[in-house]
Structure formats: C-alpha cells, structure tokens
Amino acid sequence: MNPETLQITIDDRGVARLTLARPDKHNAMSARMISELTEAAQALGSNADVRAVVIQALGKSFCAGGDLEWMRAQFSADRAGRIAEARRLAMMLKALDELPKPVIAEVRGNAFGGGLGFISVCDMAVAAETARFGLTEVRLGLIPATISPYVTRRIGVSAARPLFLSGKMFDAHHAAAIGLVDAVVQAPDLEKAVEIEIKEFLAASPQAAARAKVLARSFAPPISDEIIDAVVAQLADSWETAEAREGISAFFEKRKPQW
C-alpha cells in the first residue's frame, strides 16, 4: 500500500511504526485516513515479520479526532450514507483493537475525541507530560459514539461519564490516574521510554503474545456486533441533529455555539 495520510516503516527487529501524517490538520481522521488505517492494521497484522507496532504522529498533535470537514459532509448525506461512514470508523477501531501484535501508543502531542479511541485500542500507551486530552465531541453537539466501547473498557464507566458529558480537557497525569495511559515522561524522554517497552514486548514469543492478547480481551466486556451496530446508529443520529450543525458551524466560524 502507498498511503497518503500515514507513514509506515518496519525496522530489522520487526518493529513497525505507524505514523499519522496529517500534521497540518493535527492528524484529524479524514475518510482517507480511516480507510488507510484499516488497511494498515490488516497488513501489519498478517505480516509475520512484524513483532510490534508503535502508533505515533507527526507535528504538534497526536490526533485531534475526526476531521471536521468529513463530519460536515455527513450533513448532506442520507441516513444510509451516515451509517456507512460511522461503520467505517468503527471497523477501523476494531481492526486496530484486534491486531495480533503488541501495539504501543507514543503520545507526544494532544489527543482529542477519536485520538483517545486510538489510545484505547493500544495495548499500552506512553505519553509526554505536555500532552493534553479530551473527549470534546459534546462541545460540537456530537457524542463520542464509536470510540465509547473502547474508551469505557479502558478507563471504566465512572471515569468516562464526566469526561463524556463535559468535554473538558485534562492533562497527562490525570490520563495516567484513570488508566488511559500507562506512563508519563518528560517530552525529551518519550522515544527512550517507548523503546524500553518495545524491548520488553520483543522478549515474548510472537505467537504466545498474540494468544495472550486474545486471552486478555476475553475477560473484558465484549464489544459485540450488536454494540458496534448501536454506537454506529447513535453517531449517525447525532450527525442529524440541529445542535451538531450549530456546533460544527460555530467551530468553522470561530464563534461560541448558541446553546
């Protein structure tokens, strides 16, 4: 594959680096990026030479969530089109979640909305102390629908509820306290900290690690087809609301939404 929104490299140890490469858009997920991430997860998962995957990003931000132009396009789509787009996003997260290799998030910059979905489908996450986080969808008149099963599995319902409902931002230390990230380090030390974790994963048998990942997921609340169908429908529902139109219009017009 020759992706436009990603950079993919594999070193001689079998460590793949999956780099989000839309720095001018704060690595927000466009329709193309969603497709390319799904293809990348499938390709890396089936590549026997790949032992571990690091998800990282170019520029100042890790991932700003969904691309707002992509979201705005849903206002002119019909219901079937909205469902199809929401499902593509859900299937991308599922493909990353089920990738049969250790996956590490290297979070150097800010992560909002869907960026927390990326972190939540990783097996571990290391963040720079300067990173900030937020489930900011409600401030746009939307809800964190497709990422919600993964985020709540990661941090629990009690931690998720105030963040889902307020959209407030929080720092890396709070992210660690609720279990969203596993370690917080000074920004200059981030690559070194991730490299330490890579070496730990490479010490494991590749097949045993893949089986252990399936085992660990089996004890968590299942993210079934029915759950995915439900959150896909809820995202499509939220795209159809007047508040979503107002929230996204306000963002582009650089004003406060009228609510």
> How do the helices and strands follow one another from N- to C-terminus?
EEHEEHHEEHEEHHEHEHHHH
Spatial order of the strands forming the largest sheet? 1-2-3-5-7-10
Q: Structural class of the helix and strand makeup?
A: alpha/beta
CATH superfamily: 2-enoyl-CoA Hydratase, Chain A, domain 1
The major beta sheet can be summarized as: 6 strands, mixed
CATH 2nd-level architecture: Alpha-Beta Complex
Measured on Cα atoms, how large is the radius of gyration?
18 Å
CATH-defined topology: 2-enoyl-CoA Hydratase, Chain A, domain 1
Total count of helical runs of at least 4 residues: 11
Describe, in plain words, how this protein is organized in 3D.
This protein has 259 residues and is of the alpha/beta class. It has one domain: 2-enoyl-CoA Hydratase, Chain A, domain 1 (Alpha-Beta Complex), CATH 3.90.226.10. The protein contains 11 helices and 10 strands. The chain has helices at 31-46, 68-73, 79-97, 114-120, 148-155, 157-166, 172-177, 190-202, 206-218, 225-239, 242-252; strands spanning 6-10, 15-20, 52-57, 61-63, 103-107, 110-112, 124-128, 132-134, 169-171, 183-185. The strands form 2 sheets. A 6-stranded mixed β-sheet has the order 1-2-3-5-7-10, sandwiched between helices. A 4-stranded mixed β-sheet has the order 4-6-8-9. Strand 2, helix 1 (31-46) and strand 3 (52-57) form a beta-alpha-beta unit. Helix 1 runs parallel beside helix 3. The longest helix has 19 residues, at 79-97. The chain is globular, with a radius of gyration of 18 Å. The termini are far apart. The model has no long low-confidence stretch (mean pLDDT 96).
